[in-house]
Amino acid sequence: MHLKSIISTVILASTFQYSVASTAIPGTSDIVRTYADIALATYEDSLNSAKELQLSTNNLLNNPTQSSLNKARAAWIAARVPYQQSEVFRFGNILVDNWEGRVNAWPLDEGLIDYVDSSHYGSESDENNLYRANVIANTSLRVGGVQIDASHITPELLSETLHEVDGIEANVATGYHAIEFLLWGQDLNGTSPGAGNRPATDFNLENCTGGHCDRRRDYLQAATQLLITDLQEMVDNWKEGGEARQQISDKSEKRAIATILTGMGSLAYGELAGERTKLGLMLHDPEEEHDCFSDNTHWSHYYDAKGIRNVYQGSYTRIDGSTVSGPSLSAYVAAQAAVANQNMLNKLQATENAAQKLVDRAAQGETFDVLIGEDNASGNQTVQNFVDALTEETRAIENIIALLQLEGIQLEGSDSLDNPAQVLE
Question: pTM for the whole thing?
Answer without folding.
Answer: 0.93
